[in-house]
Amino acid sequence: MLRCSSAKKDFKKLECDETNTGQFGQQSLLKCVIKEPDVKVRVVVWHRMSENEEPLLVFKGTVKKQVQGFRFVEPFWITNNPDLSMLINNTKMEDEGEYRCTVVTDAGEGEKTTRLEVKARYNQPTITQTKNKKTSNVASYLTCESFGGYPEGELRWFDEHDKDWTKSSNMTIKKMDNGLFKLSSWLPLLSGSTYESYTCKVYDGKGVEEGKVFFEPNKQIDPEETSPAAFVAPVVVIGSLIVGLLLLLLYRRRSQSK
């Protein structure tokens, strides 16, 4: 999000977008334009507002300084309403923060500050089921996970009737090395539960749904829990076929001997 505030009153034609959101891993635009025709731009400087305020971009007749990953949208201002905007390539979480644009023209000097907020979309969530081997009324747990998002989001659970079961779940939030978040949520399934399916949905920091996954616990087969009865039917069928073939061969041999 970009927030602008005027710093000098002798040049009021420098305007910046009030809000802007940068996407993680993509280009982010910090928009600043001079809204006055026939203005000659002499100097433009972009700073990151921090303890070490070394310039990111400097223009003085030509581009004098350009830190890697930052560049002017329009490097030479020979048109009306010059665009002084700055582009940030491959936006990272550390790019979030306050910036300042300073301009010197033949009509005066001006300055604006802006704030860039970075956003990342959460990936498609996944669900796994784990049997509960402890003695309790909980038969198993469903685990939903989603990662790669920013800012902190939320995982919510719903049954096939769209009833919200989120309050019965437990969610953890972990910040990864790249500054993005991983969300994990555990939902206990009680013994004798009659619900046939569950849906896990992931929401961004503003409560907007970004993805969902559908899961049917009763259709998941645990190899360790497979009943021996599951193997009886195939064995019986194969055995019957073998016996039938032997009887057929015996019948043919007797017929040929006659």
UniProtKB/TrEMBL annotation:
Keywords: Cell membrane, Disulfide bond, Glycoprotein, Immunoglobulin domain, Membrane, Receptor, Signal, Transmembrane, Transmembrane helix
GO annotations of cellular component type: external side of plasma membrane
Gene Ontology BP terms: cell surface receptor signaling pathway; cellular response to lipopolysaccharide; immune response; negative regulation of T cell proliferation; positive regulation of T cell proliferation; T cell costimulation
Positions of transmembrane segments: 229-251
InterPro entries to which the protein is assigned, alphabetical: BTN3A2-like_Ig-C, Ig-like_dom, Ig-like_dom_sf, Ig-like_fold, Ig_sub, Ig_V-set, T-cell_Activation_Regulation
Entries under Pfam families matching the protein: C2-set_3 (PF22705), V-set (PF07686)
Domain Ig-like: from-to ranges: 25-117, 125-202
Name assigned to this protein: Ig-like domain-containing protein
Native source organism of the sequence: Oryzias sinensis
